[in-house]
Design a protein that fits this description.
Number of domains: 1
CATH class: Alpha Beta
CATH superfamily: Response regulator
CATH architecture: 3-Layer(aba) Sandwich
Length: 136
């Protein structure tokens, strides 16, 4: 199984650990230091799945979910230290497909990623790929 991922979290250690685990599973991973950079990357690169932190400076993870959902059905997996129901419901209602509470195991994250990719639509055969660019 392969896939293209946008991973956005302000926690450098978490970002590096998740990116390394996804890359080790043959996933193509791009990271963003902040949500604005990540949304630009999302529009330009068209990932198969987004993993984003809920609490980030500037645009929140909830706003990231809304922005993605307004133009795409790409699965969004939210990471957060917030474990109360209200935060989970808000993120899911904003367009997140999954919500993982920190701390979590890398194996659980990878299993959730695989589950989302199994349900995600395949890229169309009419898509033309050249390096990092996609045309539909």
């Amino acid at each position: 199984m392969s896939g293209r991922f946008w991973l956005s979290t302000t926690n450098r250690r978490l970002r590096a650990c998740c990116a390394a685990a996804l890359t080790a599973q043959s996933f193509d991973v791009r990271t963003a230091n902040d949500p604005e950079e990540g949304l630009r990357l999302f529009r330009e690169w068209l990932p198969d799945l987004v993993v984003t932190d809920l609490m980030m400076p500037g645009i929140s993870g909830v706003e990231v979910c809304r922005a993605i959902r307004s133009t795409s059905s790409t699965p969004v997996l939210v990471l957060s230290v917030r474990d109360h129901e209200r935060s989970k419901v808000e993120a899911l209602d904003a367009g997140a497909d999954d919500y993982v509470t920190k701390p979590f195991s890398i194996q659980e994250l990878l299993a959730r990623v695989r589950a989302h990719l199994r349900r995600a639509p395949e890229r169309t055969a009419s898509a033309l790929e050249a390096g990092d660019l996609w045309w539909m």
